[in-house]
Amino acid sequence: MNLRQLEMRLERLQGFERPTARLEQYQTPAPVAARLLHHAAMQGAIEGRRVCDLGCGTGILACGAALLGASAVTGVDIDPAAIDVARQNAEMLGVTVDFIVADIRSPDVDWAALACDTVVMNPPFGAQKAHADRPFIDRALELGQMIYGIFNEGSSPFVAAYIEGRATIEEVILCAFPLRRTFAHHRKERVDITVEVIRLRRI
């Protein structure tokens, strides 16, 4: 499946019904999700691999990984309503994804059972709560060997310092991220921001 075909399939997915600002529930745009996943697939990190999507929301990255031939895909999110939509999205695409309602910081989850080859994620940027992405980075490094994450522009120096001794940054790709009006405090219908797709390898 080429990049455009993947993007077109992902464009069909449902987004959040009632997004929560506290959880920074912005829908990952299909072009961004497709680019991350296609790039990871070209590097051998998706097809035939066990993939985990942390903070999966409505499942666009998880479903896309399944479309690209991952051997097993798990999506984890704290919001049961988002997981319900994610399951509907997977069913609509005809793919199999194991979706779990859980807080990625919870010690009560058997995280060892979710060990995988590749983690994909679009963690909170920290607009509502500073350093909200840190628990996602920590859990990703615990679970996977390769991590592909979407971060706010300019995050790579922080990420490099935060993961020092645990992982290395192998690649940073700048990507346009169209942010549509989602919450009451948004004044414009759409704002185009730039994000960094960062590829990490656990040491």
Concise summary:
Its EC number is 2.1.1.-. The protein is an alpha/beta fold and about 200 residues long.
Give a description of the structure.
Its EC number is 2.1.1.-. This is Methylase. It is an enzyme of class 2 (transferase). Keywords: Methyltransferase, Transferase. One of its GO terms (biological process) is methylation. The protein has 203 residues and is of the alpha/beta class. It has a single domain (3-202), classed as 3-Layer(aba) Sandwich (Rossmann fold), CATH 3.40.50. The protein is 30% helix and 26% strand. The protein is built from six helices and seven strands, in the order H-H-E-H-E-H-E-E-H-E-H-E-E. It has a seven-stranded mixed β-sheet with strand order 3-2-1-4-5-7-6, with helices on both faces. Strand 4 (118-121), helix 5 (134-143) and strand 5 (146-152) form a beta-alpha-beta unit. Helix 1 runs antiparallel to helix 2 and helix 2 crosses helix 3 (60-67). It is globular and about 40 Å long. The termini are far apart.
